[in-house]
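Field reference: sequence -> structure
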Amino acid sequence: MKAVLLDVDTLSMRFKTENGYLTAVNNISFQVKKGETVALVGESGCGKSVTSLSIMGLINKQVGKVEGTIRFKDKLLGSLSEKEMRALRGNEISMIFQEPMTSLNPVHTIGKQIGEVYRLHTNLSKAEREQKTVEMLRKVGIPRAEKIVREFPHQLSGGMKQRVMIAMAMACQPDLLIADEPTTALDVTIQAQILELMNELKQNYHTAILLITHDLGVVAEMADRVMVMYYGEIVEEADVESIFASPKHPYTIGLLNSVPSMDEERDRLDPIEGNVPVLGEVTSGCPFVSRCNHAEEKCLREKPPLINVAKQRVRCWLYANEGVAI
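Structure field:
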């Protein structure tokens, strides 16, 4: 049985406003085991990226507050100083940010930006750092690595920049890689190459991956387990086979029905009507109630708990008589 690498327990993140705090992530708990890929899925605005930033300790205390516990290996991340967190980031935990175009510094060369990771977290000499940088660029499939290290981000394509971000994230062979929409805005050919690269790095270094995405095709390709997030809460969690073969929550079913299929029985897409509620809009009941075809009076009044149903966990009153509330 694989060891638990990341243990998130009752995590909440609240943004500070003039009228008090608005909850972006509400009381979520999950684990990521060593060498495992866990996908966090949902529409924009569901709280996926805020969850990742909370784990990385990148939420400015002037903007919001993080509650709950986040344990990585034997470290309680909330109790670490900023200096201790900086030593952890990029070394044991790395993150691929959503936009490589804005995540890379435009005034520094590619080589300097990757080399900075080695400078901060290793005792390598300057010559050794340069050699390692070239080697890492080659590992992520970048041609002419010796020349690319001297070039600037604006000289590279979107796919090349994303590979640079992966090279930077994997430079110190982290135990946990958080990938926030790693294939957004890339064409399908480059997407396939990036996913293959991430799988190779996982196999070679036994790295665990927390994959944040709204692309269910990427989930099917990459994930071992899936957590579906809506309005800051996990509404369904299961292994990837169960999610695709037998989705439980109406939101998960809606997500799958909105994906194009080669199935001849489906001649049209079935989108989910409406939008994710804005922060603070839902004060009682199930946040999905306004978009759900199965909603009843109880759904308006009471928020459902997570319920164990077979191998899945689902937050829906439809399964109150079938499973065990947790």
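Note: The chain has a mean pLDDT of 90.
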